[in-house]
Design goal:
2 copies of one chain form a homodimer. By secondary structure, chain A is mainly α. Chain A contains 22 helices and 6 strands. Chains A, B: Belongs to the SLC41A transporter family.
């Protein structure tokens, strides 16, 4: 199988393209099939529609299924439209059930139903089963193509079984042992099997207490489990212990990437909008609601400042430090938020008590606040000639930073406990709360010290 | 092997603790050794110092090495201090070379050297080799415990070889084929080996064009490669093709987690400060520099506002909309930043042209800007009774949002091209730039329209 390093990729792709253009289709097929499906997919998406049609004519639906699985969702949708219906259904038959389910879930119901009807009954049933699980659960990302054994087989018998079943299984490195009711009773790795005597019974090789997850478990918890134990796969079971499927480590990598994207989205008010390959209009439609919503919060801030118009009109210079104060409080709050959110994601927070974490954040905020206040007490008199202004801004920054770190740390903890949609803990929301508190602190102090200015 | 689900964990740990307290050490050892090393480590960190000493006395250095590998770095450091020197050295001998190198790199040179001297020469050489690679390269995260084959062996011979070598290898699922010069010439999966005829030569089973990475490749590129092809491992080679080691998928998961933490750190001015298990003082020491640095940028903003003191003193209400404008521009810029940074991280951006991405962002910014401007043109006259004020704020928000998205998208692209430390692209820096531009736009418009207010 040809796998391409960066430098050989372009050359090989040009070579393939030439063969296709010159209609040397036999040679093309031979060389194309040498590629890893991931590289086949990379080549495929470069092709013009006309060349794609040539491709469909000369490669089997099974090969096309491998390519399909390596494509992005938007590319998959384009592909399916170009195929004739029979070829498409045959291709979907060859997909792993989890990939087929993920794809069909994105189509409208009529289209999905049409494809399901054209599929083999068995395969279609697997796909329907997976589609029935709520998104982001273990059930929704598991694969049905796993290998299960009986505990009374010998190592040699299992290896014979593998020779038969390996081509259809997503992994053969973890083998799950089930009893007569299909309930999961053990696991044996191919590693253990290889190193065992050939007449050894699976019973004696398997681990009997298997870590498994329920089909409704959160996909993030499955990812944490696999990461924690360095597993290559984890079994998914029904409430009564029946083995339903497995989640493999490559699915988990996708989950971790997705969760990281989601975390970032929540920190940047771009939740659900981080897809780079959309039109400006689609991007605006996804992002505008956040900006507009946060702008309305900005109107609240404007209202707060408006309340102190009298103070401001007496000392206009106070306005100059609004961005500095709000920016600092916002940054400190977001830092705390990031620390706590990462701690929750990586599971390192649980080892510490929550109260200690909050106290730590409060102390941290006070220390940073003192440093900032001292700096301002020196700088402001130099540039603006007013020591009293420095005192007002200094005390305000100390108070706002101390509060901001606590709010930044508390909100995600509460939200985590309450299992509310974590979007509400997003950076911009915490920043807004800190903005308003900071402004109240600032102008209250300024108003009460006004006579000294 | 006992692996613990959440509900059985506490019970089993209590049981172990009781045995340890009652000094029923034989029974304790037997039950403790039933646990997966990851769970052994979880149990270990719960123990008081006195109980830990009991543990060291009854388990071998080899078992302790497995526990050690499952601990966090800070816990590893605590552990090594408690051990007597000979036991510690023996334990380090049993670590995988990559884990030993990662740990020793964190100690000071004298300590690290003392441990290296006490180790077996062969193991110490492997560890020293890994420590010589720069951090975050493929070389620094690869493992030396891989299995290499000769192409002239038969499938059966390889399986015999695996029986011998499997216990010392980190994975046996990918087997690398080298020639007489130790140069990588192919790869064969255990899957292919199992399904092959037993007298088939490795030569005929292996893929000859293997995707490999250089030892100085960025760890993130290795992660992308493994993720793209759904590999379980990738081989690391020297410039002349000699197989040096392998990077396994579980290491890659750690890399992806680390990179996500890093991305988040760059977005939240908490770079390198996301460790939750540190004292308030340490946290303040790591985070304060960012807050103070950004506060100095805030002083620039204050200076900009100060320049427009005359305008402000005529219409104090203008100050009320400073946070709204700056917040909106900041949010829009951060959204663009997030989209582009994720696109770069996931590799989805490369498919689009960069110019098209920038144009897309600019159009998106204008569209969101129009929506915000229209909303303000309705709301501000109602609450503040001034249509002219609404026009000033409306035009300003339209201009700032259009500019902010372009800046948010451009900066990470430039930084990516120049291969500069991406910390400079962090959210708060872009927000500061957008703040200043937004204020200039706002007050320039306000000043020029002052006579109409």
């Amino acid at each position: 199988m040809v796998k391409l390093n960066k430098d050989t990729r372009e050359e090989y792709c040009n070579h393939l393209l030439q063969l296709l253009t010159k209609e040397e289709l036999d040679q093309f097929r031979e060389d194309f099939l040498q590629l890893h499906p991931t590289d086949q997919a990379d080549f495929y998406i470069m092709l013009e529609s006309e060349d794609r049609q040539k491709l469909y004519a000369i490669i089997t639906a099974e090969t096309m299924a491998d390519i399909f699985q390596a494509l992005e969702l938007s590319e998959q949708k384009e592909l399916i439209i170009e195929l004739d219906e029979r070829y498409a259904a045959e291709m979907i038959n060859h997909l792993y059930a989890d990939d087929a389910a993920t794809f069909l879930a994105e189509l409208d119901q009529v289209e999905a139903q049409a494809i399901l009807t054209a599929m083999n009954t068995d395969d279609a049933d697997d796909v329907k089963e997976l589609m029935a699980y709520p998104p982001k659960t273990a059930g929704s990302i598991m694969t049905k193509e796993f290998i299960s054994l009986s505990s009374t087989n010998t190592a040699q018998e299992v290896i014979e079984q593998l020779r038969m079943e390996a081509p259809n299984a997503e992994t053969i490195y973890y083998l799950y042992v089930v009893d007569e009711h299909e309930q999961l009773v053990g696991v044996v790795s191919l590693r253990d099997l290889i190193t065992a005597q050939s007449n050894e019974l699976v019973e004696n090789l398997m681990s009997t207490r298997v870590v498994s997850v329920g089909s409704s478990a959160n996909q993030e918890d499955v990812a944490k489990l696999i990461k924690k134990y360095d597993f290559l796969a984890a079994p998914v079971v029904s409430p009564n212990g029946v083995l339903l499927g497995i989640v493999t480590v490559d699915d988990v990598i996708d989950v971790i990437e997705d969760e990281a994207t989601e975390d970032l989205g929540e920190f940047t008010a771009s939740r659900g909008a981080t897809d780079v390959n959309v039109s400006a209009f689609t991007a605006a439609k996804k992002r505008a609601p956040w900006i507009v919503l946060l702008m309305f919060f900005g109107l609240i801030t404007a209202g707060v400042i408006d309340q102190f118009e009298e103070t401001l009109s007496q000392i206009v210079l106070l306005a100059a430090f609004i961005p500095l104060l709000m920016g600092s409080a916002g940054n400190a709050g977001t830092q705390s938020l990031a620390v706590v959110v990462r701690g929750l994601a990586l599971g390192t927070l649980e080892k510490k008590g929550l109260a200690r974490t909050l106290l730590r954040e409060f102390s941290t905020g006070m220390m940073i606040g003192i440093i900032c206040a001292l700096a301002l007490l020196i700088i402001i008199p130099i540039f603006y000639g007013s020591f009293m202004l420095a005192v007002i801004v200094g005390i305000s920054i100390f108070c706002s930073l101390s509060v901001a770190t606590v709010i930044g740390a508390t909100v995600p903890l509460i939200i985590n406990k309450l299992k509310i949609d974590p979007a509400f803990a997003s950076g911009p929301f915490i920043t807004t709360v800190n903005d308003i508190l900071g402004l109240l602190i600032y102008f209250t102090i300024a108003t009460s010290l006004l006579e000294f200015l």
